[in-house]
């Protein structure tokens, strides 16, 4: 049986690199193919290192979402630079996810972009796993845009270019979701995981709707990704693409699926957000299109489609486990017993 394993990160527990190595250890047949993947957030640089083994590390000093000094690694290959947004504005750089989420800033990303935008033909920014939702206001300010923010907050409510504003026409953002800025499945759908209180989400949803109408971008794909970093990319002159498009250009991902017998993915929680343009959702969509058997190793399942639940085989991780690496290894061994008969 020809099997393909797409090793994705489990946020806050295991990196796609760690899961990649577990799969490689257990499934060592010549018919087994293991590929590290990323939506654009956590694990994006691990994916880049897999695609371009000779890529060189470049480290920058910048700021966390809370303004603390941090060092961030990136990779450069030929005339391109690869940046992972989660390493700058991600969860590991925030002390308390529920404390003042509206005051977190993306300026740390802006500092790096301002420093390098003249040095590379292309700058790839992996968007995902962010704790900010300032719509890029911090980065816009560093790049000399005029911004207006909500009082006592970093949340953008108005934006203007001037003669000193820096355009990033060489910026290509690889987005974890296709979500627009506005709407039920827009940026507001991801606010709760960034620590925003339930009673505040409706207000921010109204704000995003207002901004989408003001800038004539209502329903435009990708602009709600990364807490509005897709919006930032768009207005700074860059281009947003899906993680599927990026992988398709660098790895023959659809061909791998088409020629396999069995597909395995993993995700911390497999829910309806997983199907909103995220890489695992796209893999599932193509796998079912080609009538492949699909296994999902996950900590939780919460999808509305009963039909989809029937089509997928779930292997559930014990969320109470004290060692997630051991727990994942155990479940991968169970998977091997299932697929090998």
Automatic annotation (TrEMBL):
One matching Pfam family: Gly_kinase
Record-annotated membrane-spanning stretches: none
UniProt keyword annotation of Kinase present: yes
Keyword set, alphabetical order: Kinase, Transferase
GO BP, sorted A to Z: organic acid phosphorylation
GO molecular function, one term: glycerate kinase activity
Keyword Transferase listed: yes
Family indicated by similarity: Belongs to the glycerate kinase type-1 family.
PANTHER family: GLYCERATE KINASE
Protein name: Glycerate kinase
